[in-house]
Structure formats: structure tokens, C-alpha cells
Amino acid sequence: xxxxxxxxxxxxxxxxxxxxxxxxxxxxxxxxxxxxxxxxxxxxxxxxxxxxxxxxxxxxxxxxxxxxxxxxxxxxxxxxxxxxxxxxxxxxxxxxx
Length: 97
Description:
The structure is a single chain. This protein starts with a strand and ends with a helix. A six-stranded antiparallel beta barrel has the order 1-2-5-4-3-6. The chain is of the alpha+beta class. Helix content is 21%, strand content 42%. The protein has one domain (3-92): Elongation Factor Tu (Ef-tu), domain 3 (Beta Barrel). A hairpin with a 5-residue loop joins strand 4 and strand 5 (57-61).
């Protein structure tokens, strides 16, 4: 499956197991429209997504329920990708507003 690079994990954030991410999309909110992201070739469903006052994005993923799990998950910087099959659907949704 072809994938599109849409960001990278910067660090664990908070007690709920969120990950602080740097997005490569025009608008950080576009990432949540993919619904599922791939980190190191493993699929993760996006459970929560928000943009902080500093412009950074924070994402909660299925399988990472708390800070301990996020810290174990986060060994180094991970790149985040999304399926190109979903790209056209997301692009159309973004264009339609």
C-alpha cells in the first residue's frame, strides 16, 4: 500500500497518552481526517486530535492508553504516514470545506 508522509512524533504529552506531533500538512487539522495513521508500518486509529495554542498537534491513538504506554512507544522520532487511498477522499473533503 502506498503511503503519504504527513508528520512525525515529537514526544509523549500528558497523562492520557497523547503524542505531540509535527504535521507536514497545510493545516494540522487535516491529519485527523485520515482516521487511521501508520507509524513504523503499524496502523493506529486516531481517537482524539487537537491543536494547541502553540500550533502543535496532539493526537491520541488506539493502543496507547496512557503516558506510560506513550513513553514505551516513543523510543525515537517516528514518521507518520497515511494511506494514499484515503488521500483523495481527504483532499476532496478539505477542498469542499
